Amino acid sequence: MLIDANTRLSVILKARPDALEAIVGISPRFQKLRNPILRKIMASRTTIQMAAGIGNCRVEDFYLQLSAFGFKSVNNDNTNEPAESRPLYMQSIGNYEIIDFDVRPILEQGNDPLKSIMNKIIEIQSTQILRIINSFRPTPLMQLLSDKGFESYAERIADDVFHIYFHQAEKANAPIFKEYEESVESWDKVWDEFQNNLVEIDVRNLEMPGPMEAILSALQTLEKGKALYVYHKRVPLYLLPELAEMSFRVSINKLSESDVRLLIYK
Q1: What is the mean pLDDT of residues 164-193?
Q2: Buried b (16+ CB within 10 A) or exposed e, 137-176
Q3: For residues 62 and 243, what is the distance between their CA atoms, to the nearest angstrom?
Q4: pTM of the full structure
């Protein structure tokens, strides 16, 4: 099977499930792929190039490890630089006005920058590019906006500094995201059903994207007939589409702007 920098990990693992340990062995940062739920989400949205950025390694490291499983690289030129093709708008980036938005101070204060990012996104014109400066690659955000007509491109500037570029490829006709009240069940009804069958998890002190990863990990072992009761600081708007895709339902009790409880169940 031929692979290149744009091949998704899910394609590789579908063809050769036994290649998982080889991929995990490339970087300690890939340990999360052993979790089936996280693997399902991450692998389907992560190319070899993206993974190389996340793992602080080279695209060629993947080619080398995967060659033992019958994979052959299309563009393995044995160079040290990953061979990611930049989208067209990035190739002519000088023609655009760059709008910078550094979300790291927001994250350092323990707050979620999503609403602020969305406010910026709504204002972006076709002649502009939004450049978000972040401490990690926000894959859920990139996927969320991709579904709404925005192209994105991420560059690793340093180990903990990413520049993520967003360009409006087409006019979005639908809202960026639905208000969470539209997609959740009545809290009282769900609480009455599951209050004696709860598995509790507290993600309030975890740094992003730790809360989402911890919740998905806990759901992996959630027994039938039980609900995951989550102590959170905010409504996890990134996570709601993922949960719906996995057939989980959610009930949300927003006690205050910084105190939210979730019930997640099937």
Answers
A1: 67
A2: bbbbbbbbbeebebbbbbebeeeeebebbbbbbeeeeeeb
A3: 30
A4: 0.53
